[in-house]
Amino acid sequence: MDKSTKSKWQVRAAAAVIFILGFTAGALAFNTYQRWSGARANGDRFEQMLDRLQLNADQKTQVHQTAENAQPRTPRWSKRER
After folding, report:
1. CA–CA distance, 25 with 44 (Å, rounded to integer)
2. Residues 63 and 56: beta-carbon distance below 8 Å
3. What 8-state DSSP symbol labels residue 18?
4. Largest CA distance in the chain
5. Computed from CA positions of residues 5, 8, 12, 14, in that sequence, does the dihedral angle turn out positive or negative?
6. CB 58, CB 68: distance < 8 Å
């Protein structure tokens, strides 16, 4: 392999590594941002919605109970039996 061919492959390899590192950093940053902003805002949004609806205390209690009961559950058929 002559020097110019080796140099071309080094440039290509460096470009590929930089691309992969950039892609990975972007994905991690996006995921971290979503977790940070989602954890902070989800509870606030729910309370803001209840305030906008102008519910009384009893209605808010009923909504909270319904929301707690509506949490996603894993269906029985999705669990593998061994």
Report:
1. 29
2. no
3. H
4. 81
5. positive
6. no
In whole angstroms, what separates CA 23 from the centre of its chain? 16
In the block, tokens 């940070």 appear at 36
Q: Give the residue ranges of DSSP H helices in 1-82.
A: 3-53, 57-69
CA distance 60 to 41: 19
Give per-residue pLDDT as tens, 12-47: 999 999 999 999 999 999 988 877 776 555 567 778
Contact 63, 55 (CB under 8 A): yes
Q: How far apart are CA 4 and CA 1, in angstroms?
A: 8
- Name the residue with tokens 């930089």: 18
Whether the Cβ atoms of residue 46 and residue 67 lie closer than 8 Å to each other: yes
Question: Is 0.90 surpassed by the pTM of this model?
Answer: no
Angular region, 48: left φ>0, alpha ψ -120 to 50, beta rest? alpha
